[in-house]
Amino acid sequence: MQSRWRADEAAATVARWAQQGVAEDVSLAVYGTRLLGGEPSLVLHGGGNSSVKSTAHDLAGDPVEVLYVKGSGWDMGAIEPPGLPAVRLEPLRRLQRLQRLSDEDMVNALRINLLDAAAPNPSVETLLHAFLPHKFVDHTHANAVLALTDQPDGEAICRDTFGDRVAYVPYIMPGFALAQACAAARRAAPGVDALILLKHGIFTMGETAEAAYERMIALVSRAEARVAKAARQVFVPATPAGPVMSAAEVAPVLRGLLALETDRDEGLWRRFVLAHRSGPAIRAFVDGTDLARYAMLGPVTPDHAIRTKPLPLIAPSPLAGDPAGFRAGLEAAIARYKADYMAYVTRHNTDPVAPKTPLDPAPRIVLVPGLGVFAAGDNAKAAAIAADLYEANIEVIANAEAIGRYATIDEAEQFDIEYWSLEQAKLGKRAEKPLARQIAVVTGGGGTIGAAIGKAFRAAGAEVALLDRDGEAAARAAKPIGALAVACDVTDQASVAAAIAKVVEAFGGVDILVSNAGAAWQGRIGEVDDATLRASFELNFFAHQTVAKAAVAVMLAQGTGGVLLFNASKQAVNPGPSFGPYGLPKAATMGLARQYAIDYGAEGIRANAVNADRIRSGLLTDAMVASRSTARGMSEHDYMAGNLLGREVTASDVADAFLALALARKTTGAVLTVDGGNVAAALR
Ligand code: ZN
User: What is the pTM of this model?
Assistant: First the structure.
């Protein structure tokens, strides 16, 4: 591993923060921490931490000895001075006298000694930093170090690799006891400037930020060299029984079977969003004949278990010739996993004084031979984090197996981490948004109305994919809301199939379709040419059917219901002169919504439409023309003056109507009007 420390960059960082009154010690700690956090093979997603001991001044101006230590919720790679809150050091050092300290009391002691009452909680490893005498302390979960420690004889391998300037600490879960053990190990060998925490990670110390950082790079490099010496193909691939299904075919089946039914009568599910990963290293791991041994031992470092659960699920191979067999096999495997998980909880949940609340039994990592890894989370970000962590697990386990044999913390220790009281305390405190864990697809997503719909659904917690003929328009609308943009011509069946597959690969499935793309054609019906009428039917009717059919196929594979929403038009109810080419296919689309409501109600799939009209001049035509430049723009209507309320109807009003229908769990086959009031267009 290369050192990325540059004296000029460090000095520039100090100078930049000095303008905002940040002390040099803190700026250097920030600089070093960011360098470490920028290396994914050292730390991932909030893992690791760092600190510096320095002097601050309290409000009265008196000097106070403090520990600036990473606050929870901050990533090392993106840390800034507020991410290293200051804690009074002396009261923390005095805690060394104690025999034991509960996690709750420890967190409280840290909080009451913060200089800033609004600062984030200092890291749970803060006492470890406080109990070491060195000025700068860095901590990572370096993959190469874990490959050496995660062995039955990990300590011997580490001593052989790192020598005597490093102290070795047996596995203890993070908290007060680990801090005491590390302090004792340092006292027993006063000259050491690094600690290897077996089956956990590495600490390096120094009198300067640069020294602590360089020591980390040097020791990790030594570990990498040791790994490289051993590196060879370790996993023996199982013989494939035939071609396998695609990720887009497997994901909805898996997502549906993972979903936890929370209320059968109400059709409520706790769904997951999935992330899929593949590639040569992942395939070598999941295709290995010995997968059931090396994958089922536990996480490479305890920090991962909360995101990935201690153990993954191994799915059956999804043979392309037997999708029904795969579904049945997967269903049985998930049932077995859940039963095993509950048995594990029962085995270890033995404290009668403080029994733990069992977590849901669904796996977060699913290994699919022949295909790769699927990670499950409450949203796309959580799924991606779990997938990243598991990729690190794969690298560490592969290297550990190359060196010797992978070994990790035992089941009781895994339980202690997964059911850590600090994590348990967070349970049930998160209020979820109404569309959390659902995946919505919006066509015409690059236009004004489509973008407004995407924004409203994203704000309601859904993962959103914006489809548009104009891929760049979709990307422009998607970026500010964190949605997925997919170029898609909804009048082309192959394009729709590819777009839906892309959404399914990105998120694991589809729960809501907002079929919004459309464009207006005009002409007196007795004189309009056939080509115009047929072109309008292609976009304003058949495209709705194509997209709905593709979405329904995914929803049926999931088996957890779904919602289809169509953008109909006032023209479908209340035709205007010379708008036949537009109104006729829209009338058919309104019928289409009702037909889906009838045909798929039993599967819990609802279908509704929005009849929007008199939207602010320009908006409607804008949105419509966006997806079809050949459209002949609508003539100017009296958009506002003509409505009963005399209020302007905007794109976000239309988006709110779609959202209301998505949330109306007992409503199907309905048409909701958004036009400021127009009795001529009222449904009767
Ligand atoms: Zn750690």
Answer: 0.91
